[in-house]
Design a protein that fits this description.
The complex is a heterotrimer of chains A (348), B (313) and C (357). Chain A is an alpha/beta fold and 348 residues long. Helices cover 30% and strands 23% of the residues of chain A. In chain B, strands 6-7-8-3-9-10-12-11 form an eight-stranded mixed β-sheet, sandwiched between helices. A four-stranded antiparallel β-sheet of chain B has the order 2-1-4-5, covered by helices on one side. Chain B starts with 6 loop residues before the first strand and ends with a helix. Classes of the chains: A alpha/beta (348), B alpha/beta (313), C mainly alpha (357).
């Protein structure tokens, strides 16, 4: 049963795709509670299923994919049981909204920015005419777009990437959703703009009392925004914890690998820690720990049995046999220990 | 010091203009820098700053509308002789940003990797060609049997390494890496960066590394040029630049680097760069000056005075 | 090729070894010891043995409707060639005569001789309804429609295929150069603008007057103009893909224009080119029908669907003779629809996006 503080709750969720006659196990039994008002980051490399996972909560799976097991609880309803588009329309946009990676694909290039925002306002706030226009203008101002009067009449191509992403966010929150899913919201943007967009989302979260879910492949960008972090690998969550716990005391070898391969932590002239190989092919059944073949410190049992979650603290758990009392003691890589000891990274 | 090293590439007053005569758009304006043999020169800027255009102008995909590019002292911009053309193709290669878009989806890896060999005009036997392909794949850590597969069978990191193998088979001296890792997952970036530095050590390669992320550039580059709206703002050795960032734009870039550390992130102060803050006038136009050995900054006389004071402290 | 296949089986072996590792029996103690680490193992990834053409064919074969129409077209094509060999052999252009009762033109009753028997007279077998003797009946001058229709279908298909082939050859060649070689763009665009503004009908009229009317003239006249549109179409497609990174990469590698065209551009255009060709065939056939309708078609001694439809149209007013229009129209419609559906289905099948299922 879902946690009572959770606004959105995934329970043993399984999602499969059929591709050229083969079955792909995209999500392999994930349980995760998203707490009311928190900001949760789901981190994983491409193909880990992080986008599929969150899209399932909006009924946006591709036609060849389906929820084959488990539940998605939201507001007392099980979204996994939804069949029709009509049911999804009661949730999508109104309750749970999404900001995609590439703002250009989420905007209609043939309509003015103003029209697109007004449309969202009309649809969800029931305003008309001048009132809708006013509301749209306010929405533009609220996401930090200067001169909304002039911007209102412009087309998406007249906006820079960062500005477009602001518009997409304005449209997403125009419907006053309770949950905002941000799928790689800054990946397509320049570093300087990235930070501004993240700040904007943070500010909106406070102002509108949103619950936000960030999806990203870059652990580096979520330190600033996430309350909790869930690390995903090969269709499964391997570690969940509060932001500090995951950064300063990670337990899963995959989290170690993700953290220590960040160039920010690299020492010039030395090789960065790098994860060898590629993620497993989910067409094959995964035995044991999916990360084992790429993990130099894998145990024999990792190839045989899927590890359970070991609780590290009340808020922190990881799916790795290394936490089993019978396992040999393995220290995290040097970089991570340094991060923990210094409690920070030396700025230039 | 720097002067004793061999200049491999000299870019002088480079200008690249797009569009037609009525609506010209100057993407790169008066950019000059040298790249020394064996070093990695990082070029950092936001999208639309002209950094990619510079790379493409050097490899002659984009036509140059002003200035010159010299490779080993020989002018390679504009019209060149057939031999020079061959020589440049062999010696200068490029690694592209998006491994999904930069490989021909309809060709096998075998063909993609050996594509350059056809242009070199060496008539290789089929066996020798396959041997070279296997070697190039092995050099970038891929299995030789991958040669018979199509690109879409591979992950982003593997595809990027195929792209590197394709460049390596030409045995170039100079490689332009245009955002080679920004389309990759963080977990894969390290692989590619390590591979690039290993190849540099083994073969004495020279890189022009183009990126928008200063943290990556700092890790791999010896010297860094910061570019904004088609003009260089600051150029310095990478540690020099991180120790004394002078130009406000450089400082803005530095402040935006995301740190994998919640505590320092919470204390972070973003610096926002406002291009109008300089207050350049006719009497006090921006200059490009070397303030300490190897450290160039763009600024008006008044600004440069201020920068000198910062350095003096 | 063989070498690679063996090497790929090595990858499979690597995969198998991992599976074996998973199935090995460990003691409790061994379970928590470090496993041997092979960096290559993680590299194996997935190998789906995908081949573009195989997947295209599979996707096409899955489309039942298209497969049906493909059979229809193949059967039609085959039959037009087999038909002259059948025992029912009537030459299409021969006018047939039969002995039949003479009809009084005024009373519309058979003329009787003194004994009361109808007067028999050998006359042209005109406008005979389909029946045992003439399977599709005869036309208004007494030619056998069965033979005429199959011979006409054969001729029309020949026109269609010829025009489509020239269309494809010239159109692709010019279109690719036009799109890829920037220096030619301006020149070709201007030439296109000039020639495209000359109505095709006008050219056909002039050609028919200058040259002797016939199939060759017809094909020549249609080819003269139709490839322009194809070239323009190909040019636009090439412009869309020419600056993609993989083409820039080829340019950086010094790959020649010819090689870029054959290896980088055309393979990406296969699906739209086949689609266009599939539509060009019925378009040429229909075009021939139209040209015949305006009276500039091939001479009557060469049956084509155009001639047949035109002949049928003339007698359309009389209900009993409408079979002369219907039969060629049904054949024409079948061919057009078949090509349209096959073309669409193939274009879909050739799009890698549709190879997922």
């Amino acid at each position: 049963m879902p946690n009572e503080n959770a606004i959105l709750s995934f329970e043993e969720l399984e999602i499969r795709f059929t591709l050229r006659g083969q079955v792909l196990n995209a999500i392999r039994g994930i349980s995760l509670d998203v707490m009311q008002g928190e900001s949760l980051a789901i981190v994983g490399e491409s193909g880990s299923g992080k986008s599929v996972f969150t899209k399932s909560a909006m009924g946006l799976l591709d036609a060849n994919g389906a929820i084959t097991g488990g539940h998605i609880w939201y507001g007392g309803k099980d979204l996994a049981q939804f069949k029709t588009e009509k049911e999804w329309l009661t949730i999508r946009g109104k309750e749970i909204a999404m900001v995609m990676q590439d703002p250009m694909t989420s905007l209609n290039p043939l309509k003015t920015i103003g029209d697109q925002i007004t449309e969202a306002v009309l649809l969800h706030q029931g305003l008309k005419g001048e009132a809708a226009r006013k509301a749209a203008m306010d929405a533009l101002a609220a996401v930090g777009i200067d001169e909304p009067e002039r911007r209102y009449r412009q087309y998406p191509h007249e906006f820079s990437g960062g500005m477009r992403q602001r518009v997409v966010i304005a449209i997403a929150v125009a419907c006053r959703p309770k949950v905002l899913i941000c799928d790689e919201p800054t990946t397509a943007l320049d570093v300087t703009i990235q930070a501004q967009i993240l700040d904007l989302i943070k500010a909106l979260q406070k102002k509108l009392d949103l619950t936000t879910i960030y999806i990203t492949h870059d652990l580096g960008v979520v330190a600033n925004v996430a309350d909790r972090i869930a690390v995903m690998y090969a269709g499964d969550i391997v570690e969940v914890g509060r932001c500090e716990e995951v950064f300063y005391d990670p337990k899963h070898p995959y989290t170690w690998a993700l953290l220590s391969s960040l160039p920010q932590l690299g020492v010039k002239g030395q090789d960065l820690y790098s994860i060898q190989g590629t993620p497993p092919n989910l067409f094959y059944e995964v035995h044991g720990d999916a990360f084992a073949p790429r993990n130099p410190q894998a145990l024999n049992i990792d190839f045989v049995e899927r590890p359970p979650f070991f609780q590290v603290s009340p808020t922190h758990k990881a799916r790795t046999w290394l936490l089993d009392p019978r396992a040999p003691k393995v220290e995290p890589p040097e970089h991570i220990r340094q991060l923990r000891q210094k409690g920070g990274y030396p700025h230039g | 010091m720097a002067e004793t090293r061999e200049k491999l590439l000299e870019v002088q007053d480079l200008q690249v203009t797009f569009g037609n005569k009525r609506h010209p758009f100057t993407a790169v304006d008066g950019v000059s820098f040298d790249i020394y043999k064996g070093e990695t020169f990082g070029l950092v800027g936001e999208s639309g700053s002209g950094k990619t255009t510079i790379g493409r102008a050097i490899i002659r995909v984009n036509p140059v509308s002003g200035g010159t590019v010299k490779y080993q002292g020989e002018v390679i911009s504009g019209k060149v002789s057939r031999e020079t053309d061959r020589r440049i193709i062999k010696n200068i290669q490029m690694i592209f940003q998006d491994p999904m878009a930069s490989l021909n989806e309809r060709a096998k890896v075998d063909y993609i990797v050996s594509e350059g060999l056809y242009a070199l005009g060496e008539h290789l036997s089929e066996e020798a060609r396959q041997e070279k392909v296997s070697q190039a794949l092995a050099d970038v850590g891929l299995l030789p049997e991958f040669a018979s597969r199509f690109p879409h069978e591979f992950s982003g990191g593997q595809r990027q390494r195929i792209g590197i193998a394709r460049a390596l088979i030409m045995e170039p001296q100079f490689i332009i890496a245009d955002e080679p890792i920004s389309a990759l997952d963080v977990s894969i970036r390290a692989q590619v960066l390590n591979l690039m530095s290993r190849l540099q050590k083994e073969r004495g390669l020279t890189y022009l590394f183009i990126a928008h992320d200063l943290s990556v550039v700092r890790f791999i580059s010896d010297r860094i040029g910061v570019i904004y709206k088609g003009k260089l703002m600051e150029l310095a050795g990478s540690e020099q630049l991180f120790a004394h960032p002078l130009h406000p734009y450089t400082r803005a870039l530095l402040s935006a680097i995301p740190m994998p550390d919640p505590e320092s992130e919470r204390k972070k102060q973003l610096v926002v760069y406002d291009p109008t803050q300089h207050g350049y006038t006719e009497d006090d136009p921006p200059l490009w000056e070397e303030l300490e050995p190897g450290h160039f900054v763009r600024g008006s006389r008044r600004e440069l005075e201020g920068y000198r004071k910062v350095l003096g402290q | 090729m063989a070498i690679f296949r063996i090497k790929d089986s090595k990858t499979q072996a690597l995969a198998d070894s991992l599976d074996r590792q998973a199935q090995r029996q460990f003691t409790q103690e061994e379970l928590f010891q470090f496993a041997p680490y092979d960096p290559g193992a993680g590299e194996r990834g997935g190998y789906s043995d995908y081949s573009y053409w195989r997947s295209t064919l599979r996707a096409f074969r899955k489309n039942r409707v298209a497969m049906f129409f493909l059979c229809v077209i193949l059967a039609t094509l085959l039959f037009t060639f087999l038909e002259p060999l059948l025992p029912y052999d009537r030459e299409p252009n021969t006018i047939y005569y039969v002995e039949q009762a003479e009809i009084n033109l005024f009373t519309r009753k058979p003329v009787l001789d003194e004994k009361g028997n109808p007067v028999m007279k050998v006359s042209r077998a005109t406008d005979r309804a389909p029946g045992e003797e003439f399977w599709f009946g005869t036309n208004s001058i007494g030619q056998d429609l069965w033979s005429q229709i199959w011979s006409g279908t054969r001729n029309s298909l020949f026109i269609g295929f010829s025009v489509a082939c020239v269309d494809a050859l010239l159109g692709i060649l010019v279109g690719v150069l036009w799109g890829y070689v920037r220096k030619l763009d301006f020149l070709f665009t201007e030439l296109y603008n000039i020639f495209d503004n000359v109505p095709q009908t006008l050219i056909v009229v002039i050609i028919s007057y200058v040259l002797r009317p016939g199939m060759g003239t017809m094909i020549f006249a249609m080819c003269l103009t139709s490839w322009l549109a194809t070239a323009r179409f190909i040019r636009n497609q090439v412009v869309i893909i020419r600056d993609r990174d993989y083409n820039l990469a080829s340019r950086c590698l010094g790959t020649s224009t010819g090689r870029i065209i054959t290896k980088n551009l055309l393979p990406y255009l296969v699906s739209i080119i086949t689609m266009r060709m599939a539509l060009a065939i019925p378009a040429a056939i229909n075009n021939e029908v139209f040209i015949t309708y305006i009276g500039l078609g091939v001479p009557l001694e060469t049956p084509t669907l155009g001639n047949l439809v035109e002949a049928g149209r003339k007698v359309m007013g009389e209900a009993a003779l409408r079979y002369q229009l219907f039969i060629p129209v049904v054949i024409l419609a079948t061919i057009t629809i078949s090509f349209y559906i096959i073309g669409n289905a193939f274009a879909d099948a050739a799009d890698p996006k549709n190879h997922v299922n």
